[in-house]
Automatic annotation (TrEMBL):
InterPro entries: ARM-like (IPR011989), ARM-type_fold (IPR016024), Ataxin-10/CTR86_families (IPR051374), Ataxin-10_domain (IPR019156). It holds the Pfam family Atx10homo_assoc. It comes from the Eukaryota. The keyword Cell division applies. Keywords: Cell cycle, Cell division. Residues 359-452 form the Ataxin-10 domain. This is Ataxin-10 isoform X2.
Amino acid sequence: MDDKVGSSLPKDILNWLFAYSKSTSLADALQALVNISRTADGRADLASKNVLALILDLIQGHLEYLNSELLVSSLKLLRNLCAGEVVNQDTFIEKNGVGIILTVLRSAMHTPSLDCGAVRMALQALANVSLAGERHQQTIWVQFFPNEYLTLARIRSQDTVDPLCMILYTCQDGNPVRLAELCGDHGLSLVTEIARTASIAIAPAIDSKDVQMDCDEFSPEQAFLQRIVSEILNERMDDVTVSTEFALYILGLFRKASGFVDFSERGKFGLPTGSSPIDVLGYSLTMLRDICAQDGARGPTENAQDATGSLLSSGLLDSLLNLLRELEPPTIIRKTTDHGQCQGNADSKQLKHCPYKGFRRDIVAVIGNCLYWRKSVQDEVRCKDGVFLLMQQCVADEDNPFLREWGIWTVRNLFEGNTKNQQSVAELELRGTVNTPEIVELGLRVELDHKTRRPKLVNSA
């Protein structure tokens, strides 16, 4: 340890740390305590010896003498000590640990070279303390909201934004007052900065020349937030209730993004692509897919008033079928069949390309979920000459992972209990148009049941 540092630190604290850790330097002593604090028994033993208070005193009175390594080790020890150990969490509050950490963070923010490691450790310590309960959360909140949080949110690093988000989530979860503050003007400014930092910090490493340029209508922050909401909806479908208004808003985003995306180039990446309009388009589709799946899971009763019913009344099916017709065929069909004949397009040169890998699959998935238990949608697909179009999606496609599975799901829902749709396939077969290359490639063929005169898909082997 540097002589100047050693002479400036309190001897009683140093002597205790050296004796307990059996070390001769502060760096070694702190590391030894960090190792001990990694277990619940170790934290309990250190709590009985009031180590947390000693470390807080060390930081509070002698911060200027702690170099980066010693400071990070001290903060790491505080973080570990407060991980599920109630005595240490309470001591942290009683000894003004929140104020001491705030001083550390302010000091770090004003250094020429920001030490993100120290900031991360300090925030992780606060996050562990916040888990202890309401008193701890309120103590943190009143000292940090909104200005200190806002300053921290502007550090463009995932290392710091992650623990910051944990603190915010814990403090507002179950507390309507703090949630209201977070949804107010100051709080929304904070959320905006967090979204901006997160969108920069976790942006995919994609060469800009390989993606479409962003437009003014959609920002990276908007695309990032939509990605997060889409993931939450997908992971917590049983817990989240989607309103009709929200569903229609997502449909509006989908249509708006469709107008800004360049469909002339085939996308090289799946979501996220790094292009805001494409990502908004894609995440709108995945959200529509899950919204429609959520309604379908409620049972076989068709409800025109639920979110899916409102989407359909607003022309969702029309939009998707038209877009599917305008796309170039799946790869396997493209290689074996004339484009214009296959998709019913007059000029194959004007066909659109999938702007990201999985775009066709996501369209088919939304349609498939809309068809589930909805005879009116089954009939509408038939009336719009969409039966053959959807059957063409039952193929493997290198640009659309799991297209085959979603295609089979969609076709099953299209024919389930609908004799007119089944008969329409029979009519296609009589014209020699059913057993197309994509159906053969799937290992299937369409046959007529001689007794019922209804079509059925059977294995060709």
